[in-house]
Design a protein that fits this description.
313 residues; alpha/beta; Spore Coat Polysaccharide Biosynthesis Protein SpsA, Chain A; 2 domains; 9-stranded mixed beta sheet; 11 helices; 9 strands; 19% strand
Length: 313
């Protein structure tokens, strides 16, 4: 009797990295857990100095998972652009995006997420639960939702998420001007406007041992405020944008105070950056429907709607 060949892998792993070789080594080593599920891993080196491929390959040696492809951005283009590049390069229907300081702790977490996309065409993305290196989950305040059951979520946390590639590409991917910190929410609102949802799986855990390299509180504050305003300008229908954009801009002051960040001249810098972005925003602005915005707000303020997981075949 002839044993049928195993079906080809349907998953690509995408990792954007910059100047964190040790974290990347750990992340790549963890991909051994999903051997046979992933067709390849695509690593975008977003302007590391020096380039990261050589040291990482040398550090992993025989532990390097098969089919790892490195792509170099020089100079760096930002996280959103790197993830868009990964999605364009991927040849599989599902793309697992990981931060370089994230890593897999179980095969089952990825299998569960893949089953959701395979079974339900209305789901465009799966959100994972953040956990420590030993698999213990982070506090509920640090998760996509404060629930212990599968549920529809307004967004995912970018550190680890599984995407339906064709839906992601059709929606235009991440806004590259936004870069990082808020780009996930903006994408998920556009997906919702297309009738597509995000599902959070609290039992599907992926470790996130945050590497403090490249992290700066002042820069984070600027990115969060800028991107909140950009999201309103890009997506909110009139007259919502007339209220939403100024409100989000002036949240800078309580956020700066609450986070105790010394930031002389920071507000003016954000305003100037937003002013420079206006021509591009006017060109690319595609407001979502008012019904979509109301649905989004209901999701963020109400008890999460449970999601029924597909049965294992």
């Amino acid at each position: 009797m002839t044993i049928p060949d195993a079906p080809p892998p349907t998953l690509t792993v995408g990792i954007s990295t910059r100047n964190r070789p040790d974290a990347l080594v750990r992340c790549l080593r963890s991909l051994r857990l999903i051997q046979g599920l992933a067709a390849e891993a695509i690593v975008v080196d977003d302007g590391s100095a020096p380039p990261i491929e050589g040291p990482v390959r040398a550090a992993l040696a025989a532990d390097l998972p098969p089919q790892v492809r490195f792509i170099r951005h020089d100079p760096n283009r930002g996280l959103a652009a790197s993830r868009n590049r990964i999605a364009r390069e991927a040849a599989t229907p599902w793309v697992l995006m990981l931060d370089d300081d994230a890593f897999l702790v179980t095969r089952e977490s990825v299998e569960m997420a893949v089953r959701v996309l395979e079974a339900d065409a209305t789901v465009a993305a799966v959100a994972f639960a953040q956990c420590y290196a030993d698999g213990v989950p982070w506090d509920g305040s640090m998760q996509p939702l404060r629930v212990d059951y599968p549920a529809y979520a307004p967004t995912f946390i970018g550190y680890a998420h599984l995407l339906r590639r064709d839906a992601f590409v059709a929606a235009g991917g991440f806004r590259e001007r936004m870069g990082i910190n808020g780009e996930e929410k903006e994408l998920c609102l556009r997906l919702l406007d297309r009738g597509l949802r995000v599902v959070y799986l609290p039992q599907a855990r992926i470790a996130h041992v945050a590497d403090q390299g490249n992290r700066d509180g002042r820069r984070y504050l600027h990115q969060v405020v800028r991107n909140d305003v950009l999201a309103a300008l890009y997506d909110e229908p009139f007259p919502f944008v007339m209220i939403g954009a100024p409100y989000r801009l002036f949240r800078y002051f309580p956020m700066r105070k609450g986070w105790k960040i010394h930031d002389p001249g920071g507000f003016g810098a954000i305003v100037r950056e937003l002013a420079g972005a206006l021509p591009e925003v006017r060109r690319d602005r595609r407001p979502v429907r008012q019904a979509t915005l109301r649905q989004w707000r209901t999701m963020t303020r109400s008890a999460p709607e449970p999601y029924t997981l597909p049965e294992v075949a």
